[in-house]
Backbone:
């Protein structure tokens, strides 16, 4: 967690109801990115879908969007070095592989991820995306709260 | 050209937002998902504020006949709420909770010198390829076997 962000040096370190202001600001930027992609070119900013379609059939705009995410995060890391951290122990190679396989399989089968179903699907008021978000949230909470401990993943 | 430029700018903003929101840090994501320890509501703040903007944006889009730089809005396939949706998102959520990575933040991690995400992204690609192969053979829409 980001409690080490020095509140005295950064106004964004403040909180509303336990939610850090920088997370709200970041969410607004993410939402703006999704809206821009839709209004400008009519595409849904679903990262898993764009990632897999780019890998399968290419498309320059897809690669530019994905490359932009990497470059934008790099820029963010320079602007906000205190946020550029991984504040949990590594789950280990096999759990990482299992995690990646499940995310890849699940987002293809389920038709989206946190961005496609979450940011865009909820924004479009799509009932299907609401169901998707509730299911993956519940599964994520169950896994992080219980399964990781049973599997002996460092908490 | 304008399409490509728009996609690049949208990607840059998306990556910047992931970093600024703390979601490029899987520890922050697990701080929300893991209710067994110190819980953090930050992820709700990120998703909530992003959805707030996107609700407004998609409402604006309804008044537009076409996107700025393309001929038309693609018709999004209307799919049912079915077992495929539930199982897929169940598996996605389990994978997400194991590491704290979903696709966007994992991509963002590439820029942050985080070697974990290389393993994760290769496995994610493999998982997606396996699913598509499986769906092509057994899934809905596959040629009936009987």
Residues:
């Amino acid at each position: 967690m980001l409690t080490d962000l020095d509140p005295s040096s950064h106004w964004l370190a403040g909180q509303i109801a336990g939610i850090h202001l920088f997370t709200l600001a970041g969410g607004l930027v993410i939402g703006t990115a999704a809206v821009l992609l839709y209004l400008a070119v009519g595409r849904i900013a679903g990262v898993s879908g764009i990632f897999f379609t780019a890998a399968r059939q290419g498309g320059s705009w897809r690669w530019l969007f994905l490359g932009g995410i990497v470059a934008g995060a790099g820029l963010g890391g320079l602007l906000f070095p205190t946020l550029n951290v991984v504040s949990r122990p590594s789950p280990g190679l096999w759990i990482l592989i299992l995690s990646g396989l499940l995310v890849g399989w699940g987002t293809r089968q389920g038709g989206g991820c946190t961005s496609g179903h979450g940011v865009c699907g909820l924004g479009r008021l799509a009932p299907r995306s609401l169901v998707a978000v509730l299911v993956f949230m519940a599964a994520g909470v169950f896994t992080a709260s219980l399964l990781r401990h049973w599997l002996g993943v460092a908490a | 050209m304008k399409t490509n430029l728009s996609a690049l700018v949208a990607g840059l903003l998306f990556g910047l937002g992931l970093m600024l929101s703390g979601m490029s840090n899987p520890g922050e994501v697990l701080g929300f998902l893991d209710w067994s320890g110190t819980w953090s509501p930050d992820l709700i703040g990120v998703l909530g504020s992003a959805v707030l903007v996107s609700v407004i944006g998609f409402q604006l889009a309804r008044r537009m006949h076409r996107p700025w730089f393309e001929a038309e809005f693609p018709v999004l396939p209307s799919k049912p709420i079915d077992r495929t949706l539930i199982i897929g998102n169940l598996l996605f959520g389990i994978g997400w909770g194991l590491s704290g990575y979903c696709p966007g933040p994992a991509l963002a991690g590439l820029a942050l010198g985080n070697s974990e995400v290389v393993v994760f992204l290769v496995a994610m690609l493999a998982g997606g390829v396996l699913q598509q192969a499986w769906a092509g053979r057994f899934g809905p829409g596959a040629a009936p076997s009987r």
